[in-house]
Amino acid sequence: MNRKRVLITGGAGFVGSHLVDKLMLEGHEVIVVDNFFTGRKSNVEHWIGHENFELIHHDIVNPIFIEVDEIYHLASPASPPHYMHNPVKTIKTNTLGTINILGLARRLKAKVLIASTSEVYGDPDIHPQPETYWGHVNPIGPRACYDEGKRVSETLTYAYAKQENMHVRVARIFNTYGPRMHMNDGRVVSNFILQALKDEVITVYGTGDQTRSFQYVSDLVEGLVALMRSNYSQPVNLGNPVEHTINGKIKFTCLF
């Protein structure tokens, strides 16, 4: 194995912490940078004290200077309650933060993967969405701070790649669930599980016939690592190709 020194921004978060686990178990040196707005120290505390692990409390809106071989840029609130709590901060994280990370990657000649989102497609009028789909978006809607922030993040990434001849990867992440999710995540799976655990009536908006794709977090992590190690530089959708109705997801949730 070619051992690498890897930076993960947002590495104390839901997805980031599972990525930490995989890379640590593979024997890499892992540095986590997190401001703990949505990330939690408890997600990575089992690695604290390990010689290959370092945890840095830092907000990537401010530049960081560190020596690494690869960067996974996952830092950003991703659930509606979190990113709408402070929309200006969300935009700054996805613009200024991304500029800082791309600048770091440029100086180090490090490969960088930017975690984008399926939300760049907005409210799509085609299903499923291929990577070539430009989206159906509202730049001033309640979710725009996140959606447009990620769209700008992608634009910045490819501007840097073209101008500075950088090695970049962009992952458009679809709905993900698994251990370490925030119970107040505000998205479908966590809402259903929380209501079921409280023996409450599960809330469905609309008929429940609308479809979503759901992937388990370990599958997403495998996809992120495979994309980083590939030679493909264009955006890649990472999600379950099979969509399920909301009603179907409720029935599945209630089985457990």
Automatic annotation (TrEMBL):
Keyword Cell wall biogenesis/degradation tagged: no
EC assignment: 4.1.1.35
Chief location category: Golgi
Topology with respect to the bilayer: Single-pass type II membrane protein
InterPro entries noted in UniProt: NAD(P)-bd_dom, NAD(P)-bd_dom_sf, UXS-like
Keywords: Decarboxylase, Glycoprotein, Golgi apparatus, Lyase, Membrane, NAD, Signal-anchor, Transmembrane, Transmembrane helix
Enzyme kind, highest EC tier: lyase
Residue ranges that the Swiss-Prot or TrEMBL entry lists as coiled coil: none
Catalytic activity: UDP-alpha-D-glucuronate + H(+) = UDP-alpha-D-xylose + CO2
Pathway as given in its UniProt record: Nucleotide-sugar biosynthesis; UDP-alpha-D-xylose biosynthesis; UDP-alpha-D-xylose from UDP-alpha-D-glucuronate: step 1/1
GO molecular function, one term: UDP-glucuronate decarboxylase activity
A GO biological-process term: D-xylose metabolic process
GO cellular component terms, A-Z: Golgi cisterna membrane
Limits of the NAD(P)-binding domain: 7-251
Cofactor(s) needed by this chain: NAD(+)
Compartments in which it is found: Golgi apparatus, Golgi stack membrane
Similarity comment text for this entry: Belongs to the NAD(P)-dependent epimerase/dehydratase family. UDP-glucuronic acid decarboxylase subfamily.
PANTHER family per the UniProt record, alphabetical: UDP-GLUCURONIC ACID DECARBOXYLASE 1 (PTHR43078:SF6), UDP-GLUCURONIC ACID DECARBOXYLASE-RELATED (PTHR43078)
Name of the protein: UDP-glucuronic acid decarboxylase 1
Taxonomic source organism: Acanthoscelides obtectus
Lineage: Eukaryota, Metazoa, Ecdysozoa, Arthropoda, Hexapoda
